[in-house]
Design a protein that fits this description.
Two copies of one chain form a homodimer. Chain A has about 375 residues and is of the alpha+beta class. Chain A has nine helices and 17 strands. In chain A, the strands form four sheets. In chain A, strands 8, 9, 10, 12, 13 and 14 form a six-stranded antiparallel beta sheet that branches. In chain A, strands 5-4-3-6-7 form a five-stranded parallel beta sheet, with helices on both faces. In chain A, strands 11-15-16-17 form a four-stranded antiparallel beta sheet. In chain A, helix 7 runs antiparallel to helix 8. The radius of gyration of chain A is 23 Å and the shape is globular. The relative contact order of chain A is 0.15.
C-alpha cells in the first residue's frame, strides 16, 4: 500500500452525509475529520486573518456601525481565533458569546484574555447546534462564507443560531448575500485538458506494460479510469484569482439571500436561468466564473449607518482568499460582442458530503446575427 | 471561512481512534473518510501497480513458488484492483477470495472477469473483520505495508484474517518483515529549517499588522503558532528517495516480524536500542532514514522454492513508491568515520488516528576518540 492520508482527492468520496428518505443525517465524527479539523490550525486562521478585503469589510461593518453593538449582546458563530468577537466587544458590546467547534476555542480564549476582554467575551467550545446560551442576542455576527458562498454549508449553522438565539428585533452581520456568475476567458482549460490527455497517454502505456510484463489485461479499466480523471481534471471547478479583463460578458446574479429570513431549505439548491451578453470583440468563451458578495446593511427597522460590502469579484487589487470558482468549458467557443449566453444553472449538495457541491451548468449561444447554437450541458463538482 | 477540505495538515487532528482504558476503538465512518477512501481511486491503484520493485517481488514470489498455489485456496486481504488475486489464480489456485473494503471491489470484479478468472476468483466487498468465508485457506497474500512498514496499521487486518481464516498449515505472503534505520546526510533539513524560519518571520509581520490595522494584539498566539509550525516543518518525518551514498553509517534492524506468529500487541509499539557506526570521513549526520523489507520464504514445514525479497532500502535504481521516511536533526552534527551513534528508537500509534505514528528518537555520539557527546532526544510524527 503506501499513501499519504487525506489526499485532496479523498474529499470526493468521504462520508460525512448519509441521506435517508431525503433527509440528510450527518455523522459528526466524520464531519469533524473532513471539515472542522482544518480550522483547528493557526496557520489556516492566519490565512483568513491576512485577507485584507475580508478583514477590512468586517472591521468597518462593526466600527462604522457601533450603534448596533454598544450595550448589546452579540453571538459570534464559528469564532475561530475570536477576532469578530473581540471587535464586537471593542465596539462596545455588553456581552459577546463566541462559539467555536474546534480546539481553536482555547486559542480564542487566550487571545480574548490577552486583549483584556474576558469580562465581555465568553468563548464556548462546542457546535452551535448543541450549545445553550443564557439569553437571546441582539446581533449575530459570523464569517460563514465558503468558496462560491455556499461551499462548506456552514450557513446552516448560522441559520440554526438565528432561529434559536436572535431576538425578534435582532440584526445579522452580514445581512445579505449574493451569488454571481459571468462568462470568462482563461488559459486554464487548455492546461487542464493537456494534463488529462497526458494522464491518459500514461495510462495506455501502463496497460500495455502490465499486459506484457505481468500477464494481466487492464484495458477493461480504461473507461472508468478516464471517467475518474475527467472528473478530476475537467469537471472539478478551479479556484482562480481572475483579472477583470478575463470577464468577457455581463455578470448576472444567481441568488440573493436575506440572512434574516432565509431557511436551510432555500439554500439546499441554487437554481437560476440567466442571460449574459458578451462585451468583448472576437474572444473565446472558456467557461464561467462564480463569486459572491455579502452586505452589512442591518435591518429595515434598524439599518446600518454605514453600509459595507464585501465582494469577491475579480479585481485588479489583491483579491481574496476565496478567489473565484471557475467552471471550464471543453472545448471553448468563439464569441463576439453582442452574442447572448443563456445559462441554466443548478447547484446542490454532494450526496457523499453535504459540505461539497455539484453543479449542472447548461448554456446556449444566441449570436448577434440571431442564429441559435445548440445547447451544451456540463456537470461540475466544487470540492 | 473558505478552505479546501481535507488539507494534508488535517490528517494530524482527525478522529478515527478513541482510546478508552487503553483499548483503541475505531469509528468506521471516520476511518473510511480518512483512510480507505484513498484506495477507491484508480489513480492511486495505478501508482502502486506502476511500482516495478513492488510488482516484480510479488509476481516472482507467486510464479516462482507455484507449489504454494496449485490446487490451493487463497485469501487476498485488501485486493484493491485485484492483481494479487489474479496472479494467484493464474499460478494455479483452485479458489481465491479477494476481499476489498472500498468500491474498488467493483473494478476488481470487472478485471477478474475480463481476465477470465471469475470461476476461480471471488471478489468480496467488505472489511476483513466483518466478512465470513465458507472455508479456511492455504495461503494469505496481501500487500499491507505502509510507509516505514507499519504506517496505516493495515497489518492488523492481515493478522485478524490469519487468525480467523488461515489453516494451521497455511502460508503467509509475505512471510517475514523487517524495519531498518540508518544515519544519513541530506540537504532537506536546511530547507525545512529555512521554511520554518520564513514562516515565523511572516507571522511576526502579521502580528504587527494586525495590531496596527485592526487593534488586536495576536502576540499571545506566537508560541502556539511556532509549535504548530515546528511540528509541521521540523517534526514530521519526510518522504524521500535517498541515494545510497546519503547513508553515512551502518544500517540497523529495529524490528523483525514473523507474519505467521506476530500479534497486534507485538506491533503496537516498536522499541529498540541500536548502534550504528559512521562509515564516511568527515561528514554531517543530518538525521536518520527508515525503511523496510519483506520476504517471501513460505514456512519451515513448507518453504518457498525460490525465496523472494522486496526491499525499500535506498537504491541507485528507481526505488519504490514507499521511498524512505527521513527523520531530520536540527541542527545536524559533524561526524567522522568510526564514530558510533547509539540510538534509542520508540514508535507508537497516534492517539487521534491509529493509522498514523509518533516516534521518539534519542541518540548519543561516541566519537572514535572515545569522547561521549550529550544525548539528544527528538519527537517525530509519521503522518
Amino acid at each position: 500500500m503506501g499513501s499519504a492520508a487525506n489526499g485532496a482527492a479523498a474529499a470526493a468520496v468521504d462520508m460525512a452525509t448519509s441521506t435517508s428518505n431525503g433527509v440528510a443525517t450527518v455523522d459528526k465524527g466524520v464531519d469533524f475529520a473532513n471539515y472542522f479539523c482544518t480550522y483547528a490550525f493557526l496557520y489556516h486562521q492566519k490565512e483568513m486573518l491576512s485577507d485584507r478585503v475580508r478583514m477590512d469589510a468586517y472591521f468597518n461593518s462593526v466600527f462604522k456601525n457601533k450603534h448596533h453593538f454598544i450595550g448589546k449582546t452579540v453571538l459570534d458563530v464559528g469564532t475561530g481565533s475570536g477576532i469578530l468577537a473581540i471587535w464586537s466587544a471593542q465596539a462596545g458590546a455588553k456581552k459577546v458569546y463566541a462559539v467555536e467547534a474546534t480546539k481553536m476555542a482555547e486559542h480564542a480564549r487566550e487571545l480574548v484574555k490577552a486583549n483584556n476582554l474576558h469580562d465581555v467575551v465568553e468563548v464556548i467550545e462546542g457546535s452551535i447546534e448543541d450549545i445553550t446560551l443564557p439569553e437571546k442576542v441582539d446581533v449575530i455576527i459570523s464569517e460563514w462564507m465558503g468558496y462560491f458562498l455556499l461551499r462548506e454549508s456552514m450557513f446552516d449553522s448560522v441559520i440554526c443560531a438565528r432561529d434559536r438565539w436572535l431576538k425578534p428585533t435582532g440584526v445579522m452581520y452580514p445581512s445579505h448575500a449574493r451569488m454571481w456568475l459571468a462568462p470568462i476567458r482563461s488559459g486554464l482549460g487548455d492546461h487542464k485538458m493537456s494534463d488529462y490527455e497526458g494522464c491518459m497517454d500514461d495510462w495506455l502505456g501502463f496497460v500495455k506494460e502490465t499486459k506484457s510484463y505481468y500477464g494481466v489485461d487492464m484495458s477493461v479499466l480504461t473507461k472508468p479510469f478516464s471517467e475518474e480523471q475527467k472528473k478530476y481534471y475537467l469537471q472539478n471547478s478551479v479556484w482562480n484569482n481572475l483579472h477583470p479583463n478575463q470577464v468577457v460578458g455581463t455578470a448576472t446574479i444567481l441568488m440573493e439571500i436575506d440572512c434574516l429570513t432565509v431557511t436551510v431549505e432555500d439554500i439546499l439548491k441554487v437554481q437560476a436561468s440567466v442571460s449574459s451578453t458578451i462585451t468583448k470583440e472576437d474572444t473565446r468563451l472558456c467557461g464561467f466564473g462564480g463569486w459572491f458578495d455579502v452586505h452589512f446593511n442591518g435591518r429595515e427597522e434598524n439599518p446600518a449607518e454605514c453600509e459595507v460590502e464585501l465582494t469577491t469579484a475579480p479585481s485588479i487589487d489583491d483579491g481574496t482568499h476565496w478567489g473565484q470558482q471557475v467552471f471550464l468549458l471543453h472545448p471553448p467557443v468563439r464569441v463576439n460582442q453582442g452574442d447572448e449566453v443563456l445559462v441554466n444553472f443548478s447547484m446542490s449538495r454532494s450526496e457523499e458530503n453535504h459540505r461539497l457541491m455539484k453543479v449542472d451548468l447548461g448554456y446556449k449561444l444566441r449570436l448577434s446575427s440571431g442564429k441559435m447554437l445548440l445547447p451544451v450541458i456540463n456537470k461540475f463538482y466544487i470540492e
